[in-house]
Amino acid sequence: MIDIIKVVILSIVEGLTEFLPISSTGHLIIIDRFLKLSPKAFSNAFSVIIQLGAILSVVYLYFDDLNPIAKSKLVPRLGEENFKAMSLKEKFKFRDLKTMRLLAKIIVGFLPAAVLGFLFDDLIDKYLFNEITVSVALVFYGIIIIIIESVYKNKAFKYETIDDIDMKTIVLIGFFQCLAMVPGTSRSAATIIGAMLLGASRTSAAKFSFYLAIPTMLGASALKVLKIGLSFSIWQWFLILLGSVLSFVVALIVIRKFISYIRNNDFRYFGVYRIILGILVLSISFFKF
């Protein structure tokens, strides 16, 4: 029962923080001080694998946007009967080109993090994954968010939708995402703020951040799992499944609310929250709670 309570709390925190610009790592460091799963190898694997539940929430929510042969896209062109009669291969011949461009942008945006993450993952874990780095990153980028929102207040954006963003800008957004390899930065914060600096609207920046999370988090999770291994008991697999389902449900709710929120609000409150959290993480480290 104690393990289940721990899993529920950890999974809710993961789902709440993964797609918001507030750093899931910073929150998990605080939670880890008081709620530790054991053994350590299982705890590490659990934290990585339940991210897959959060990723699936993006796939579920935006499946039609990411599927070039979605019924909603092909039926208006081909008709209901023709669509049903076609094989997957035949449907792909009539694929939606706008969606194919979106998928190409996701792949291109993912490449910088894929290459740098593969090359430097071990060094980052060894030298940067600590509470001091996390707290400094939380505070620093919290201040950056507040400054950017003050500068960009009421400013018109160059790219209102993801379809408007050119490939050169997509590559640059991909490099902004690489900043999140420093723990405490927040992957979503790096991509959203980077995209806004390059001219994307808040909504398009947030949506592209969600899309970019799919290959990025899948790749990062796969890399970690390969290093950690998957030799667990039936009970431990049950806890992982429970955590993945909970993180999926919570992340689904958070994404919907977040997109609704940013249509009429900016990110300054998130910046303030990051600063407070960073000070809290630093205090926990300093006073050895």
Write up what this structure looks like.
The protein is mainly alpha-helical. It has one domain. The chain has 15 helices and no strands.
The tally of strands reads 0
Major beta-sheet overview: none
- Which radius of gyration do the C-alpha atoms yield? 20 Å
How many domains? The number is 1
H/E element order: HHHHHHHHHHHHHHH
> How helical, in percent, are the residues?
over 70%
Strand content: under 5%
Backbone shape:
globular
Mean pLDDT: 91
SS class: mainly alpha
Low-confidence stretches: none
Amino-to-carboxy terminus distance: 25 Å
Q: Count up the helices.
A: 15
Q: Any descriptors?
A:
289 residues, 77% helix
Quickly describe the structure:
By secondary structure, this protein is mostly helical.
Strand and helix map with partners:
Blueprint: H1 2-17, H2 24-34, H3 40-49, H4 51-61, H5 63-66, H6 71-78, H7 80-85, H8 88-93, H9 97-127, H10 131-151, H11 167-178, H12 187-197, H13 202-228, H14 234-262, H15 268-287
